[in-house]
Design goal:
10-stranded mixed beta sheet; 3-stranded antiparallel beta sheet; globular; single chain; 15 strands; binds iron/sulfur cluster; alpha/beta
Amino acid sequence: MSLLPADWAYHRVRKLGVPMVLDIHSSQVKPLSDAAYELLPYATGEEDGDLRERVVTRYGPHAVEAALKELGALATSGFITRPDLKLGRRIAAAPTPLKVMFLHVAHDCNLACRYCFAGQGSYRARVEYMTPGVAQAAVDLLMRESDEEGALIRFFGGEPLLNFDLMRTVVAYAKERARALGKKLNFSIFTNATVITDEIARFLAENNFEILISLDGPPRTNDRMRVQRNGEPSYHLVIEGVKTLRRYIAGRHIGCRVVLTPQDLDLVEIVGHILGLGIWKVMFGKVWETGSEPYAFKPVDVERLKAGFTEIAATYTDSVLRGKFHWLGINPLGGFIFRQLEGGNKDVYHCLAGRKSAAVTPSGDIWPCFHFVGRERFHLGHVTTGINESVRQRFVQNYSENRKSCRSCWARYLCGGGCPANHLARYGDITKANPVQCDIDRHVLELSMYAYARVVREAPHLLERLKVIGHIKEGYYSDKGFVEHLETAFRLPEEAEQ
Ligand code: SF4
Ligand code: SF4
């Protein structure tokens, strides 16, 4: 009989020299010794004694004995989990309260970024601003469709701050409705940060906004794509906005979304620059490979992109291990670590789009997310008539286990089936995974596993501390005084060492 279950669903990988294993059904990761890594197929019975002999020759009998003990402990410690065959069906049958509403208060923008997916703000239609009537109906819908856990309103555009007066009205109205109904409500904004004044920054601070700004890195990188209407660079305007924001808002509440292009793949330089501005959260996007434009990723660019991610993952991990915790907000690496510490990353969906999140445009039309705006087949409803359940069901049923392309992929519970909007752009079908994107996503997932495995292996004493920081970042602790106490106690640096 083999040491480990012969039908164990695992993914074994050595990334940047770190051997580790993922238990697919729990999404938990464990670093392994070199000998245990090599012996794993022997321990499951997939390979015979020849493998064991080769490992003995390479590492010696004592190391092999220790490795077999290490592998045996995977089974006895409960690390190996059995498949939950009904998981996807069960999740799909559960209620789908609306959790996130993207409120497109302005289909207009003061910039003209070359790669903009939204037609420079107007979504290739007419410039339009949301009215108070539509906004009020949208908030009412959110209050009806959300559950007792509450919801998040994300102000979106174009550039939402071009309709700042409406934002003020919406926040006041939504807070009043939420209070009356006893629901928790949070706000966030995606902004290019170029029109931020003290008044705006104060308002965002007073209402505890999470801020996500668009900035691609240092001036040379940013201004290649992100320009004003007259073609002039935008970097200096963004920096003024960031400085104003930082006078009122802590760096941990400000994030930055970087759109990568094949021309600029020095992720270490980009991230270093953004952290240097006192912004703690960084996430990456890219222009999908369907476009013919020079800045759209093509299959030929994929290896360079992967190399960029590899380099940032190594720098990230070294930084965290040296106690530079302001690096923790680099996603998806940081998010992966925090979720591992909370017991898992398992999900059968990639995002909430169409199920638990919706985008409302100035006309009051509802779409699964901003990328679906104008795709009539996916018209999710209207604020006056509500959500079209049959369209919602197409997203509910689109869970990774339910899709041919994902069913046997080791990453199905970590990736959740990839971005449906990306699949649609590539194949005209939200259920069909794009193999080029999958290759990149799986690489980044393995790098996230690597970052976590190195912390476990090299600095287990940090794990409890990281757990607390994760709680603070994710906002699990709502008591402000307690958070401040923890931040001081754990020296979560506000003006972090760069
Ligand atoms: S990596 Fe690709 S195949 Fe695997 S779960 Fe994600 S979308 Fe599906
Ligand atoms: S469908 Fe894609 S673009 Fe839309 S919210 Fe999901 S991950 Fe984001």
